[in-house]
Amino acid sequence: MPPGVIDMYTSGPVIVMQLPEKLNQTQVSSVFSEMEPLLENDRPRLVLDCSEVQQMDSAGVEMLLHCMEGVMKRDGDLKLAALSPACATILELMRVDRLFEIFESSEAAVQSFHAFPSYAIPQSEPWYTPAYGQLGDIKAAS
Question: Between the chain's N and C termini, which has fewer beta carbons within 10 Å?
Answer without folding.
Answer: C
